[in-house]
């Protein structure tokens, strides 16, 4: 497709906003936003018009497309992951200027909302009026709903491109992976989700809410060809044993202590053997930064000790990418203003550095 359809162009202009603008603030991180806009657009004013013109380049853009979803409404411990898209982009542009990914922008996020299904008609009308100046607008208003709606159209128009999502708390991966998996099924491809995390995210609900950072995996299982095509790596913080999660949900898990005990190479062999037996065509990597040990990833809502080292993580990712195309991915739960190490900016910058290294690798693989 050489041009954007008018309907999709309008949806993008209405439901998204320029990169870095997904958090509605006046002065917070203003300098960082302006620095980002200067790097991407060459100026700090008239950004909306420049971004809308830039969207016309999407059809001829590289295969890897960045989408920020600056929402932490689906979190529940320490908030602040809504700043992940802005800060991680800045790190990527500084550390990896050779990246050629197309930046689609940010989902427009009303910070109090999660999914449209939780809203009554009055609230929906008010929010449509706030976002679109039309209380009868057909567009969604909550970040998870907007993301899924936009991506269904994205994959329909650009089946050969992939989305790299930047969150945000891990609930954001629900619409990212759901739209991806449904698109791959329509294309006749068998895709597996490789999920790096300290936590299983396999709750059915949390405090009565079924879509959140601790439950999103449960609600994409039926979109996989088989439930064990969700492969979880780095798990170590759970109130229940591995046997419960695998037995109840049918997923496959590789806990952090097992990886360290048996060695990374044996873990890689097990994952690759499973993928080969299942005739998997493509991979989606969903990465919660707390999969990394808290000595390297402290700027997150739920830092955990005993996690993977960055070198171990990269070893696993490189081995997977050598055998299978990575056609979708995300990086979640980087919370730049939240650091548990007591080191302040040092802990934040170390977390961003690790997150950027992993993200850059995934973006390069998606661009192939």
UniProtKB/TrEMBL annotation:
Record keywords: Hydrolase, Metal-binding
Keyword Metal-binding on entry: yes
NAD is among the record's keywords: no
Gene3D superfamilies: Ureohydrolase domain (3.40.800.10)
Pfam families linked: Arginase
Family statement: Belongs to the arginase family.
PANTHER family assigned to the protein according to its UniProt record, in alphabetical order: ARGINASE/AGMATINASE, GUANIDINO ACID HYDROLASE, MITOCHONDRIAL
Protein name per UniProt: Agmatinase
């Amino acid at each position: 497709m050489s041009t954007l359809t008018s309907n999709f162009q309008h949806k993008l202009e209405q439901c998204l906003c320029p990169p870095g603008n997904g958090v509605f603030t006046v002065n917070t991180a203003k300098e960082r936003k302006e620095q980002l806009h200067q790097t991407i657009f060459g100026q700090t004013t008239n950004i909306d018009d420049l971004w809308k013109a830039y969207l016309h380049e999407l059809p001829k853009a590289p295969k890897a497309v960045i989408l920020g979803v600056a929402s932490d409404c689906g979190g529940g411990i320490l908030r602040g992951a809504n700043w992940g898209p802005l800060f991680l982009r800045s790190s990527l542009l500084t550390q990896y200027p050779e990246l050629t990914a197309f930046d689609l922008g940010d989902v427009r996020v009303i910070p109090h909302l999660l999914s449209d299904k939780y809203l009554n008609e009055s609230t929906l009308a008010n929010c449509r009026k706030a976002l679109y100046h039309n209380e009868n607008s057909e567009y969604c208003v909550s970040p998870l709903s907007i993301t899924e709606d936009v991506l269904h159209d994205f994959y329909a128009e650009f089946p050969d491109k992939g989305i790299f999502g930047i969150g945000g708390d891990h609930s954001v991966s629900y619409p990212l992976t759901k739209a991806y998996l449904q698109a791959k099924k329509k294309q006749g491809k068998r895709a597996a989700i490789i999920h790096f995390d300290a936590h299983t995210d396999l709750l059915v609900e949390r405090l009565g809410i079924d879509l959140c950072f601790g439950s999103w995996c449960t609600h994409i299982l039926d979109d996989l060809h088989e439930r064990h095509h969700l492969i979880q790596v780095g798990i170590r913080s759970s109130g229940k044993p591995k046997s419960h999660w695998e037995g109840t949900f049918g997923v496959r898990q590789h806990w952090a202590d097992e990886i360290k005990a048996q060695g990374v190479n044996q873990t890689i062999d097990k994952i690759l053997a499973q993928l080969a037996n299942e005739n998997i065509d493509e991979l989606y990597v969903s990465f919660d930064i707390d999969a990394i040990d808290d000595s390297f990833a402290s700027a997150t809502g739920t830092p955990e000790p005993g996690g993977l080292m960055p070198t171990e993580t990269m070893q696993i990712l490189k081995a997977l990418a050598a055998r299978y195309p990575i056609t979708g991915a995300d990086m979640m739960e980087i919370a730049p203003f939240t650091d548990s190490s007591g080191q302040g900016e040092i802990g934040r910058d170390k977390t961003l550095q690790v997150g950027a290294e992993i993200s850059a690798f995934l973006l390069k693989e998606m661009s192939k």
